[in-house]
Amino acid sequence: IRDSAKSVAEARVLENTALVLDAARACEIPVIHCTAAFRPDRAGSFDNVPLVNRLTQNPNHLQVGSPEVEVCPELRPAPSDLESQRLLGISPFHGTGLDPLLRSAGATTVVATGVSINVGIIGLTIEALNRGYHVICEKPMAMHQDEADEMIQAAEANNRHLFIHQNYRFQ
Questions:
Q1: What is the rounded average pLDDT for all residues in the chain?
Q2: Can you tell me the distance from the alpha carbon of 120 to that of 98, in angstroms, rounded to the nearest whole number?
Q3: pTM reported for the whole predicted model
């Protein structure tokens, strides 16, 4: 988890994501924030996922209604933004209304960006590709090469496009 936080900070993920979201809003493209939370009693949480097991050791971590599960203020959430919160699973598609939200908006492409590059972005990307969406990922797209390879394999298996957006500008 520390490596992920360091990678997020070094890549300026929050700052770059805020710019992407501002541009989407300016073009009237729907912004959907995918967040994760746990019930206080942890009911419904999988006990066969090592990362979730580690997180559940702290009973207050990512608890529904706590400030830590709110959208980061650095992303400048707007009243027009939507939120899809998951209480179980690793992918934002499982156990949420994310897919119907995207389909009702007529989305054919998902932009996968955010701070959860060690789990959430990978799950979002693979599941979006499996559901027939094209995906654009901000850099870094994954923490490790094997994770990036899984994302590429999902795109190839589903005949979908996976793009990696270069968020750095050359001077």
A1: 83
A2: 13
A3: 0.81
